[in-house]
Amino acid sequence: MLVYGDAKRLERADMLCAEIASRLQAAQHLPAGIERHTELVAILLRAGELVQGLADLELAQMGADEISASRQTGECLLLDLAGLVARSWRQGFAGPVVVPARVARSLANSQAPLSLSIREPEGYAFYALYPESYLEAAAGSGLPADTVVIGLRSIGTTLSAIVAASIGAAPPVTLRPIGDPFQRRLAVAPQLAERLLRDRAANFAIVDEGPGLSGSSFGCVADWLEDHGVSGRRFHFFPGHKGGLGPQSCGRHRERWAARPRNVIDVDDLLIRPSNSARHLADWIAHLVGPLEKPLEDVSAGLWRKTLPGDRWPPVDGRFERRKFLAHTADGPWLVKFAGLGDAGQRKLVKARLLADAGFTPPVAGLCHGFLVQKWVSARLMAPPEFRRPAFIAHLGRYLSFRARSLPPPAAQGASMAKLCEMAMINTEEALGRAAASRLKTRFGDAERYNSTILPVDTDNRLHRWEWLVEGERHILKTDALDHSSAHDLIGCQDIGWDIAGASIEFDLTREERAELRAAVSEGWSRGPNAGLMELLEICYLAFQLGLWMSAKSAAAPGEVPRLEAAAARYARLLRRRIDGDYDGVAADRTPPYRP
């Protein structure tokens, strides 16, 4: 199934350098505290994107990772910035921020007006992966300062700098594993290879997030070192979680992973049960919403469903679930949900406030170093008949048109029409067979003629039935409205027609009701999607949802599988009808998308 994407955006190196320099200067004048520390981390992450972009540009030009002046400048820059973060963290966010003189020189030397392809580090944006976790893991590793630190791009660019700063090592080397995701390999040019292998008896720290399904990124670095004479006893892994390699890993990698040290401090160790109270997430939250009456209540990975009345739980895809907690205060509970470190979290905070001020989502208290604090509303889920009432369709139209016209424009576009069609055909063939995919290919023959009519906006991408609450008698609230257009999947920001298509499917709207919704969106935005485009988007939406819920089963707990299967079966039925030209089939299918 085709579900995941690899979002990239273009930025200019000289403008990134100017931004980093300006933010560093401003940070020196901020008062000591967690807000200043949060900004130092954000600066480190932006510098990591700069260095990653420059290194990947050189890799594309040379065909291999190699030593260069810009690489060495970037390595020193990141090590110095990681040192600022490390000192701030270890001093409890106190003391002055003293920027090393060579930071200014490093930024000046990197100011060429180059266009860089930047990849969003998923761990920082979605999976509550903190540089400070690697700082603590490295401090507890016992590794000496002569350790060779290797970071895997993208996210390993900054994580390896943090590890090196923690143990006092030299600037790290970053490498880009390439090739098949399950069989990654390295391309290392001679001079860089000589630098890495100068002391084969040294310890080697290999730093990245994950591992994922195969662990082949970690594995290919260790393979390369072993193949060049380094003993496997010298390897020390710095992963993002305490689990093992995924089911697609090979025997050689599993054996090595089990045998070698894995240095991990997860977000719970770091922020939920730390030994230092100044670093406790609960204390930061209390400064926003008042004293907490009891410890944070973990509602991650579907545990939030325990707050729902009844036992008809919606399905949960654990791969895309954010870390979240309930903070209980005298004024009621607050939802504390990971929104992203650095600028990713700040963008979501701005969006959350815009939506809340417009009355579409719950009130917002603020952002605590990556965690958004939003009021937990005592409300009920909407009942299926309510979705088809004119009042709700009008409200939904206002919500979607507000997103289209009022939220900041996307930094990067989502999947193209061609990519959406490719995804739909791949998922359809796997789920419904080659004959169905062949018929769908015929339907998609002229899909790209709609390209000129598509205008990407910050779409919601998550309009499922269980995402809507009714507060009191009439007030309708949308939950989970902030980041699915920038999630770790291939959809991204789309034309507002994508959300209209999603609503039509999720709420079982008839042809007439779909027309009402399109009209409501157009009334609030003076622009509506083409009817022919809508038919294609509904097919693509169904194929994506089918692939999403089918592929979720492999990592789901046994008790979750029936709900996932029920959701996938509904999308499969509707997709088959769409492929056969039945556009009134949604209204005829009243099967719930989940079961207890």
Structure description:
There is one protein chain. Helix 17 packs across helix 19. By secondary structure, this protein is of the alpha+beta class. The protein has helices at residues 13-27, 34-62, 69-90, 101-109, 122-125, 131-139, 156-167, 190-196, 216-227, 251-259, 267-272, 281-289, 342-357, 390-406, 417-432, 434-443, 496-506, 511-525, 531-551, 561-579, 585-588; strands spanning 8-12, 115-119, 148-152, 173-175, 204-207, 235-238, 297-298, 324-329, 332-338, 364-368, 371-375, 380-381, 456-457, 468-471, 475-478, 494-495. A hairpin with a 3-residue loop joins strand 14 and strand 15. 46% of the residues lie in helices and 11% in strands.
Q: What structural keywords apply?
A:
four-stranded parallel β-sheet; globular; disordered C terminus
Percentage of β-strand residues: 5-15%
Side-by-side strand order of the widest sheet: 7-8-9-11-10
What is the helix tally?
21
The total of beta strands comes to 16
Outline, from the CA principal axes?
globular
Rounded average pLDDT: 92
How far apart the termini lie comes to 25 Å
| Main pleated sheet | 5 strands, antiparallel
The helix content, as a percent range, equals 40-55%
Name the structural class.
alpha+beta
Short description:
The chain is α+β, with helices and mostly antiparallel strands. The protein has helices at residues 13-27, 34-62, 69-90, 101-109, 122-125, 131-139, 156-167, 190-196, 216-227, 251-259, 267-272, 281-289, 342-357, 390-406, 417-432, 434-443, 496-506, 511-525, 531-551, 561-579, 585-588; strands at residues 8-12, 115-119, 148-152, 173-175, 204-207, 235-238, 297-298, 324-329, 332-338, 364-368, 371-375, 380-381, 456-457, 468-471, 475-478, 494-495. A hairpin with a 2-residue loop joins strand 8 (324-329) and strand 9.
